[in-house]
């Protein structure tokens, strides 16, 4: 059923994703979903991000407007328009702050667009929500996190500094079955008086969001009802679950049968041999030390499990010897891959993941259990959710800040061959079924999106 077929004129939605793959991808799925329901979509981006967007969405269907990315930002090399390409994630806040310099250009173009029903933009681009308010256009902030992580961060504020030791567990007020430590949270929110650039940035986001129409959450209600209810009870604006967005197909990203990339051909071979594969990838931003990379290589090699490892930013090379030694069982890829296509391959039966929220959702929807290895941002909370709350994964063990090869080997075997692995594999299939139901006609996410656009339409 098309949600907006009776609307005249069609709703016109403006989308503005933040400049990083983990934020662009879900909004491309949302764009596709809105187009499939007969909305008109205009998407803002920057010149360097345009090709990826055009490759994923046909520009016959959608208007893509690229605004120049500001130059001369201290610390940011010229030409870098995405956080995936930053030399270090320590530059994240400077990058995110600099996007505000695009506001005059954004407003100039916005004023000239035909009647805009609403603006949906990434909450990191909080200034777009301010622009919407200025022009009287309803706006929705897109939150790339789980409701679980957002709710826990909110509930823990104020409790964190009371605990001197970073790894001393304490119980949350609103979720008494959950124990967290200061290590699960991001500096400076672990401090008694948080301050500094990240704190100011998050404060600006919260102010802009509180003046917006709502918060879009890329999740489905049945996955995290208590946490969605908490957000809607304790904070403004109203939160709406419209995911998992990754279940919306982007036709241009679908595998082309007669032109398979070499890693998909390799997975086909493993399927023919009946060798289950562990997929190993840590998203688009994670930085991994050379020491840690060596331990991962050792653990994967010793586990004797077949694996496909996507190595992105790293300080060192793995060396040809390693690749020669593991060639029967393993494949190392150093290019951008279509992760969803890999996870959906039936021979992939485990995912060693940093637990970025998109990766968690993609793993759930592909019925693949997770071996959780959180690295930064809210990934520690996502990992907790995966392992303790929805029980679709196991967790690696860190000792002295590093995951040792021996320990990784044991966890990989446990996930791929052990009893605990079987339990979480069974559970992830159930959760995947609920995810698919939520986006079907009449499902919770389907209904929420329809009601939301109708509310905004009446509000206009
Ligand atoms: N991704 C991909 N190919 C790659 C690396 C990442 O398709 O080689 C996609 C992945 O499927 C996910 C997104 O990039 O949709 C990464 O988002 P996530 O939230 O998992 O992690 P982040 O990169 O933001 O840390």
TrEMBL record:
Keyword Glycosyltransferase: yes
SUPFAM superfamilies listed in its UniProt record: UDP-Glycosyltransferase/glycogen phosphorylase
Keyword DNA-binding: no
Keyword field: Glycosyltransferase, Transferase
Domain of life of the source: Eukaryota
Pfam families for the chain: UDPGT
InterPro entries (UniProt xref): UDP_glucos_trans, UDP_glycos_trans_CS
EC number: 2.4.1.-
GO molecular function: glycosyltransferase activity
Entry's family note: Belongs to the UDP-glycosyltransferase family.
The protein's name: Glycosyltransferase
Lineage: Eukaryota, Viridiplantae, Streptophyta, Embryophyta, Tracheophyta
């Amino acid at each position: 059923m098309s949600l907006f077929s009776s609307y005249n004129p069609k709703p016109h939605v403006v989308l503005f994703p933040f400049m990083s793959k983990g934020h662009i991808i879900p909004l491309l799925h949302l764009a596709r979903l809105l187009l499939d329901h007969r909305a008109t979509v205009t998407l803002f981006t920057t010149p360097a991000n345009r090709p990826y967007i055009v490759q994923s969405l046909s520009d016959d269907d959608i208007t893509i407007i690229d605004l120049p990315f500001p130059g001369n930002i201290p610390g940011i090399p010229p030409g870098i328009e995405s956080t995936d390409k930053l030399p270090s994630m320590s530059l994240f806040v400077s990058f995110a702050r600099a996007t505000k310099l695009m506001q005059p250009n954004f407003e100039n173009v916005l004023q000239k667009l035909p009647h805009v029903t609403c603006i949906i933009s990434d909450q990191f681009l909080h200034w777009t929500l301010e622009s919407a308010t200025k022009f009287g256009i309803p706006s929705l902030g897109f939150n790339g996190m789980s409701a679980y992580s957002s709710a826990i961060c909110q509930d823990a504020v104020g409790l964190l500094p009371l605990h001197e030791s970073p790894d001393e567990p304490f119980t949350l007020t609103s979720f008494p079955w959950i124990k967290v430590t200061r290590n699960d949270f991001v500096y400076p929110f672990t401090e008694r008086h948080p301050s500094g650039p990240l704190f100011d940035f998050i404060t600006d986001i919260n102010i802009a969001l509180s003046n917006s129409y709502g918060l879009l959450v890329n999740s489905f209600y049945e996955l995290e009802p208590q946490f969605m209810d908490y957000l809607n009870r304790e904070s403004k604006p109203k939160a709406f679950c419209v995911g998992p967005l990754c279940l919306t197909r982007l036709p241009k990203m679908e595998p082309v049968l007669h032109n398979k990339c070499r890693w998909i051909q390799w997975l086909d071979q493993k399927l023919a041999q009946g060798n289950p594969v562990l997929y190993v990838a840590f998203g688009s931003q994670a930085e991994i030390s050379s020491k840690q990379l060596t331990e991962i290589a050792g653990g994967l090699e010793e586990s004797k499990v077949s694996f496909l490892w996507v190595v992105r930013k790293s300080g060192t090379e793995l060396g040809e010897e390693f690749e020669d030694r593991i060639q029967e069982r393993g494949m190392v890829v150093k290019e951008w891959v279509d992760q969803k296509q890999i996870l959906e391959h039936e021979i992939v039966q485990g995912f060693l993941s940093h637990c970025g929220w998109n990766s968690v959702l993609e793993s759930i929807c592909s019925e693949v259990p997770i071996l959780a290895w959180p690295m930064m941002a809210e990934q520690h909370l996502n990992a907790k959710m995966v392992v303790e709350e929805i029980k679709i994964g196991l967790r690696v063990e860190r000792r002295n800040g590093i995951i040792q090869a021996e320990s990784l080997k044991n966890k990989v075997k446990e996930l791929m061959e052990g009893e605990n692995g079987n339990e979480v594999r069974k559970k992830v299939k159930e959760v995947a079924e609920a995810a698919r139901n939520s986006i079907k006609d009449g499902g919770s996410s389907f209904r929420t999106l329809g009601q939301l656009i109708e509310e905004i339409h009446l509000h206009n």
